[in-house]
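quick q for whoever's on today - can somebody do inverse folding on this one?? i tried earlier but teh output was garbage lol. tokens:
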């Protein structure tokens, strides 16, 4: 599959409020793209090999907290079968009691250690401008919510960095879990981020790359 081919996506939310109209407008702006939506806990019915087969990629913009052992098993089976996944923003903080999720998403933000700061103006640094997710994107300014004092796993491929006291230094990456290609982008709190051209390009190219890399 080429990176400009049409892709069909399931966008999963739940467990955290967000500005719906500008968020969905961002996805509506992407060419050669279609999507369905699901909200936790109902979204769990899609997180298995059979139900997810109709989607090229899953995009998580959730912060759901609870997951049963059976749901974990189905989730892991989906990853073993290579379903491409993009995690956005507060999806990093999902399933805090499931330790394996930190390995899936590629990093960990822990309550009591991690910090959050709203409406921070800062520079997003493109750590690897040659990667397909970041290709054609130069360092850009954004006003967004930062996460601080969280750790990216040492084995991830770093895509985005920041030098700001309210932000962790590594804020975007890719890695593989099982047979699934994973992208995580920390940005994306509200309409100020959704409307940012740099952020939109990252999300669009992130989705397309995990699909192309998985084929």
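ok took a stab at it. sequence:
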């Amino acid at each position: 599959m080429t990176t400009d081919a049409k892709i069909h996506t399931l966008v999963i939310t739940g467990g955290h409020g967000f500005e719906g109209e500008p968020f969905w407008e961002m996805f509506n702006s992407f060419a050669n793209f279609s999507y369905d939506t699901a909200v936790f806990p109902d979204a769990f019915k899609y997180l298995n090999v059979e139900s997810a087969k109709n989607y090229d990629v899953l995009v998580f913009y959730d912060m759901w907290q609870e997951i049963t052992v059976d749901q974990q098993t189905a989730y892991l089976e989906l990853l073993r079968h290579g379903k491409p996944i993009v995690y956005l923003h507060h999806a990093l903080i999902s399933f805090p009691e499931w330790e394996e999720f930190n390995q899936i998403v590629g990093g960990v933000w822990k309550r009591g250690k991690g910090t959050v700061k709203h409406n921070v103006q800062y520079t997003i640094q493109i750590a690897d401008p040659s990667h397909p997710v970041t290709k054609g994107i130069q360092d850009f300014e954004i006003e967004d919510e930062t996460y601080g004092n969280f750790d990216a796993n040492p084995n991830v491929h770093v895509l985005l960095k920041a030098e700001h006291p309210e932000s962790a230094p590594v804020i975007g990456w890719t890695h593989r879990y099982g047979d699934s290609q994973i992208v995580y982008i920390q940005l994306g709190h509200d309409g100020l981020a959704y409307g940012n051209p740099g952020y939109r390009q990252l999300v669009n190219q992130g989705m397309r790359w995990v699909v192309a890399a998985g084929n």
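fwiw The chain has a mean pLDDT of 96. also The domain at 7-111+171-214 is CATH 3.40.50.880 (Rossmann fold). so keep that in mind when u check it
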